[in-house]
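To assess whether the prediction recovers the assembly geometry, we first specified each molecular entity separately, as shown.
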Amino acid sequence: MALIETRDLSRVYDLDAGRVVALDGVSLDIDQRDFVAVMGPSGSGKSTFMNLIGCLDRPTGGGYRLAGTAVESLDADGLARLRNREIGFVFQQFNLLPRVDALGNVELPMVYAGFSRRTRRKRALQALGRVGLADRDHHRPMQLSGGQQQRVAIARALVNSPSLLLADEPTGALDSRTANEIMALFQELNREGVTIVLVTHDAEVGRHAHRLVRFRDGRVIEDRRQTPVDARDLAPEAAE
Amino acid sequence: MRLFEAIRSAFSAILANALRSLLTMLGIVIGVAAVIAVVAIGSGARNLVDQQIRSLGANLAIVTPGNVTQGGARLGAGAASSLTDDDAEAIRREIDGVVAAAPFVQGGAQVVAGGSNWGTRIYGIDGDWFSAREWDVAEGRTFDPEEIRRGDIVILLGQTVARNLFGDEDPIDQIVRVRNVPFRVIGVMASKGQSAFGQDQDDVIFVPLDAGRRRVIGRNYAKDGSVGSIFVKFANESDIEPGIESISDLLRQRHRITAEQEDDFSIRNLTEIANTASASANTLSMLLAAVAAVSLLVGGIGIMNIMLVSVTERTREIGLRLAVGARPRDILSQFLIEATTLSTIGGALGIALGVGAAYLVAQLAGWPSLVSTNAILMAAGFSALVGIFFGFYPAQRAAKLDPIEALRRE
Ligand SMILES: Nc1ncnc2c1ncn2[C@@H]1O[C@H](COP(=O)(O)OP(=O)(O)OP(=O)(O)O)[C@@H](O)[C@H]1O
Ligand SMILES: [Mg+2]
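The predicted structure of the complete assembly is given in tokenized form:
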């Protein structure tokens, strides 16, 4: 069973100016431990697709199952739970809370998961260590570089051990060197077993992914496997 | 605990906009301060009235000559009084529930003792005075019935008079002169303190009724045993109203007043007057409390306004929280707790300010004030309620936000 199964997934905006079909019947399966790069011209529906599979938005047509759960059937609380446990989202603009230090930002998903303060502290520190920022735990976003801020955001996305990491142009606001470091981090995380779907405009980045999906006008126009998903890594998660 | 953490993060959100938060709280601060101060001053006033009733003596009525309604003019000081010793005696004897009927005359007097000289009020009284006014001597003794009957020239001093004339000396058995009449001091009254109007009730002297009438106060009293007024004390509060009726009938009969004629006396229920004063003090505090409530309302609207602004400003934060797994109700409670924390801090500041104001009024205006724990608890509870009530709508707006729209908003 694939981690993500979309069937004819569509998202239509009814605007005063007319109907906009942002996503037009996308059927896609994504397996666990895959590393999928989503590419395509601007306005082709990449972000729309990401928001739908990230349960931030609701489709206007078609179906979507995440880890076997039919997402359409969930209410607001059910979606919140799914976002909390199964999905880690990394944004182009980092979206860190400005008044809270790195540790606090990483703790946030665990607050809503209902973990105790001590557990949160411990696991947030671990997550920060995983992205190489263990020594910046008490820095506020303003006191961190863009790359460091994005690492904090990645740590936050990882901290509840989600089955899926979604990143919509995570390096879009970073210079190329920092962007390469962040990409290296994603690859490392993928090797450790995290399923990643990542939107990028960078063909170089696209080449590093196991699979490349290209969008145009709300449809998938190309779906290419570049590297086989390592069968050994598909074994039950023993490392966790 | 989650609530504790939520309150802590509410604090940091409030501190992030300290000045704005302070200005927002101002309505609550002023409202609560007004409530606390008004209630404190109001209950101080009521306390004062109670104290006044107590210092006057409970269940008391006073019969005065003349009729207040007679052309609006009270009986002048020089006119003959219509009340007499015998009236008092008749009231004491014939009216049910009367425990004392104390006729008295009063006037101003200079008291001289050795080199000292003191101007004070003098009362000519009989033996019932002490029980009617619930007042006794602190030193020495009161008049004995013989002294009253004969009108002996003996005198009781109020504390203030005793202190001013004799200082630390023992005044008992000393001679003081009033209008050149040498009175022998037989006792010093217990202290009554200030009256409601700031009068020193201990600045007074007492002599037997006849001694006062004949030798000191004079005027028209001496002629026919007439008296200035009569205090009537009843056993129970319920005796007062029917008692006053009966006294009125009795005096009309005794004074041979025909059905068409007006009374030549008037009777006032002093306990009732005191109660009325207490009631109007109550009404006043209710009124001021209403004003304070309006201020609380305005403060609440201020909180609602600032919370709406805050929700708009922090739309992205809300979107992010939703994206990492906050449920709508988590967002709702976050903003509700923030609003409530804001209003409760305002309430706490208001309580401090109100207590301070009440204290200041007490100090500067000499007006007694009584800060009650109840008022403080109520104010705290109310300000929290204001936060919950006025914070609900903004919090609900925050909770209803769509995650993706909230994240996209700048
Ligand atoms: N909230 C919205 N209301 C109306 N139309 C929208 C909305 N969001 C997206 N669209 C439309 O949907 C289409 C797809 O948008 P989307 O953001 O998915 O593109 P994208 O592939 O992410 O582009 P980019 O590479 O520029 O980020 C666009 O034509 C856009 O105008
Ligand atoms: Mg996009």
